Structure of TonB-dependent receptor:
Amino acid sequence: MNTMKARISLFLTVFFVLALLSVNAQERLIKGIVTTFDSIPLIGADVQVAGSKELVKTDTLGRFSINVNPGDKLKVSAKGFISQKVKLDDKIKMVLVNLKLKPTESAREYAIGYGYVKDADKLNAVAQLNSKDLDFSQYTNMYDLIRGRFGGVQVSPNGEIIIRGVSSINLSSAALIVVDGVAVDNSMLNNLSPTNVQSINIIKDGSAAIYGARGANGVVIIETKRGKDD
């Protein structure tokens, strides 16, 4: 009888050890970076696993690491920003999340006041305009819209966007134009109707560093309504 009990005890021990190893094998570590305006790290943003509800905060460089199980999703949020859910497939090990600032007057105050942005000057170097705040259809073309709504931004006779206050290291002083994530020639603006635009962001100073030398003169980031739907 004692031998039988010993065998059962050994069997249960092995079973539980294997089960524990199986659970640990399924769990994996996900690392990531949370930014805003493509390049500004967000500090102290919440990253939560939908299944386990485990929560971590991003560090001073916007980085985080968290354990997830198969099928889990991440919810990334910060006060003043639009929350984002991230699906995780089995091959994902690194996640890059870019949170968008809410189109409200208090959003920037939250971002700076809550310490999400280490250098307030970086966030203030970004000018944002959203079609929810302004009827873009009142402008006949993109040049009039940009010139009329962004202080310190000029349009040259040949259609180049010039952002004042940006020191050029290139032969040209033209800002880089990015439409729906793709760098385009400034002539693209001739074919783009303001009514089809969702948002415009003007970036200067160190915030444009992610674009390298091409962004040295500043960057005009345009998101179309079609691009948003995609």
Residues 125-229 form a domain with the Ferric Hydroxamate Uptake Protein; Chain A, domain 1 fold (CATH 2.170.130.10). The chain has two domains: 2-99, 125-229.
